[in-house]
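quick one, 524 residues, struct below
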Amino acid sequence: MNKLLTATAVLALTAGTAAAQDAAYTLHILHINDLHSRIEPINAFDSTCSAEDDAAGECFGGVARIKTFIDGKRAELDGENVIVLDAGDQFQGSLMYTTYKGDVEAEMMNAIGFDAMAVGNHEFDDGPEQLAEFAGEVEVPLVSGNLDLSQSNVLGDDQVADHLVLEIGGERIGIVSALATDTSETSSPGPNVIFQDEIDALQADVDALTEMGVDKIIALTHVGLPKDREIAEAVTGLDAIVGGHSHTLFSNTEEGAEAYPTEVNGVPIVQAYAYSKYVGHLTLEFDEEGNLISAEGDTNLLDASVEPDAEIAARIAELAGPIEELKSRVIGEATEAIEGSREVCRAGECAMGNLVADAMLDRTADQGVTVAITNGGGLRASIDSGEITMGEVLTVLPFQNTLATFSASGQDLIDALENGVSQIEEGAGRFPQVAGMSFAFDASAEPGNRVSDVMVGGEPIDPEATYQVATNNYVRNGGDGYSIFLDAEDAYDFGPGLEVVVADYIADQGGSYTPYTDGRITAK
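---
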């Protein structure tokens, strides 16, 4: 166990060379995270791949390719010690989840054969009841050690374990896990699922495993890379962290990616982006005392060179049949790509944010609404140029959120914008995309004092005035930290689905939409 590495061991961990020759035990970890129901292949924009693009070899991922890759690795490593891990967020992100509510994800996880899965925040999107149903279908043990389920009559330790022990090659491998504590804001776990501090809970579980004599411990987390770094610094006894939530690409070949693995305090950290595009392969070497002496590996791109598993692909085609007509319906055309990536839409104005916010404002203007605000985290993909299908719109807006309207004071709107930019350095989904208003922000200032120059309809906002506002029902009900809207007056949360609002708006533009940004959000 990697308690306090000597200088020699740290050097070996970084180099991953000579020390590995003295290894007494080698563990191969194959891992994914944040699949987000990308059961079918995706295109370069992380959206649904068309049959034509897939046939042309221009698409990536999909669970049939994951199955092929993992089966191939198991065969290649036959006789060696291999575990397959999922760091959470199987739910939410395509019509497969919208239609089947986790049944398909469970079926595919069973077919691939994972050894453990962390609970992600989006596993709570349809409440703890849906997660409980999923837990009953999936043959993979679910783990999340910082959830107190003692008050829940839906979920229990028999469905989500605090920690796991896997028997692999005559050794016991401990799996500990934690879920981001802001899940009560980013999803819908309800009041009876209690979140404990991630670091405290992980340390308690590591200590429990250590007392059991387990000397090889992996943290399978869904907290994001910044928190994983904190965990590596604070929690003693971890040998590696396999993470998710922040959709971070680790790669030793792709420009701009985090190094795979990234070492913090002697603990290797890895992640494999998202959406089924990559599978990570981390190789850990331990000495006879259970100390980690080397860690190396990389993510593997699942491009057209990876042949989809034929049986899985046939099953997916069968499942896709009932929803293919809706997905393929063309609702308009984009004159150029509509940028909707999380890296852009959670950090500043983005073209997809403008499209969605403009559509919300347009839909409610006859109700006197003058301002629209939506969370950047609700935008889940870009759309490429050319025909726009309903399937693409649903990939961008997969949460079945509805249009909501309410009244708010100018000061409430200012406070809401402050919340929206309060975690920009973490890439949080609360970043506000707006219409009918503009604002500036200074990310270097203290949270709560970052927003300035707020304008509504071209005039400075009046903190005392009342404005009619449009948002989505998730934000209106306090999601992503927007608790300021919880007790809003004149609230109505049951408008049409956002995907319908956006599709209708594009159609109303004559079917041709030109994406744009106009400086409504500026960084100082």
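The chain has two domains: 7-316, 331-523.
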